[in-house]
Amino acid sequence: MKKYPKTLVIIPAFNEAKNVGSVIDNIKTYASFADIAVINDGSEDSTAKIAEEKGAAVLNLPYNMGIGGAMQTGYIYAQKAGYQIAVQVDADGQHPVKNIPELIDTLSDSSADMVIGSRYLGKAGKEPLVTRAVGKWILSKIISLITGQKITDSSSGFRAVNQRTMQLLIKRYPRDYPEPESVAMLIKEGLKVIEIAVQMNERCSGNSSITIHKGIYYVIKVTVAILIDAFESTLSIKEN
Amino acid sequence: MTPLQRFIVIFLGTAILTCTIELIRRRKLWEEYALLWLLSGTVILILGVFPQIISTISAVLGLAYLTTLLLIAFLFLLSIVMHFTKVISKQTEREVKLAQQLAILKMKLEKLEKGKKQDLENTSEYKKTAAENHCLNT
Prior knowledge:
The complex is a heterodimer. Chain A is an alpha/beta fold. Chain A has helices spanning 17-30, 47-53, 66-80, 100-109, 130-147, 163-171, 178-188, 212-230, and strands at residues 7-13, 35-40, 57-60, 85-88, 114-118, 159-162, 193-197.
């Protein structure tokens, strides 16, 4: 078998008892070399119990911190335990975990600091929902305006990062809707972010966390956050 | 300003200062957060003692006397609220860090405890077999 770097798959989970088990099983099938940590973000259902039974390391947050706080916990844990690569996978089963090896390969082959699994790359204008297409277009434009780089799917949470990126994200990670903002921040810090094309799955159970009016709020919040970040001084990785 | 109005303003300033200092003394208010209150009390007191300050400001800005007073009060409240928002943000950041460290430590502790339990079970098992062997031998 091919030798992979020490990898941790981080699954932030809030009330995902119905999906988290199969996500863990799939990761074990397609990325058996990786360790799995479920960050239980104050779930009220049996998410933690199921994850533990499936053999994942479970970190229970004392209250619901939002996906940003949960992911950051995962990065802190990964860094402390000496993982070279951390992969984020959502607990709802949308992310195609069979692509995890490809994410990691791309990370090392192209010496990138973050590789994002994009559902839009190479498939221009395939978004069936108009509202989503507009939101996607705005975010993409804002990020290319600020960073000069085109990112097709900045809100994708399916991503792999190296230690350098972890170190930065531990220092600073937005609390809610962190994905696009963190991408803009990393590129601005001079890190290399690239995308690969993936096919996202349909949700197995439950609804997307982003409804239409939430989507509008999402785009506004993220846009403002990215613009504010643009005026901030850069965080040097060396200084602590 | 009539003597009564002056008395009320001086009384108000003194009351704010006394309350703030008393709360600090009883350790119910941190000095760090009380600075703006101390400043507010002092300014109100000064305005009461020297009423011509407000008259001058009113004349310069072309405002009525009461409006100037309200404006000053509003500015103080605004800065106090701003200060509190800053404090809350800082506390939120600390609270997040604490919760994250707590989650990691809790997991490590549980792992350690599980390992210890297993060790204990293994030792007792060993003792049992040893005892059984002992019985068999005799």
